[in-house]
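Researcher: Re-running this chain for the archive, since the previous output was lost when a drive failed. Same request as before.
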Amino acid sequence: MHNLYLSLGSNLGNREENIRRALALINERVGSVYRVSSFMETAPMGFASDNKFLNIACCVHTMMSPTACLLETKKIELELGRTHKTVITNGRRQYSDRPIDIDLLTYDDVTMDTPELTIPHPRMQERDFVMVPLREIL
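Model: Regenerated structure tokens:
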């Protein structure tokens, strides 16, 4: 059994319901959701929007590989209405509003860096909306 830590965020629609639905699907398809932080509301980071984010972190016990977890969480994002991921234009990340965002933060003590997935998440230490909920459940 592996410990997978995820960050979830939503700033469109019923944010709390979006996160709860994502957690239920993660529990069904990725592994047992073992711990969940409290909700944290934050302003968007990296782009302008009137829509605040609701964020949480969770720990999942999974038998899946990191890459399989990534693929399944991307399917869940699409199912819950996410139309596109962050794009990089001229070396800059272009963020946008989204009903759900699921990021893999850590997977056991694994370190990996592929074009599809970097673990631990390379920018998690820079983001209070990730680190505050994560510290709550560690």
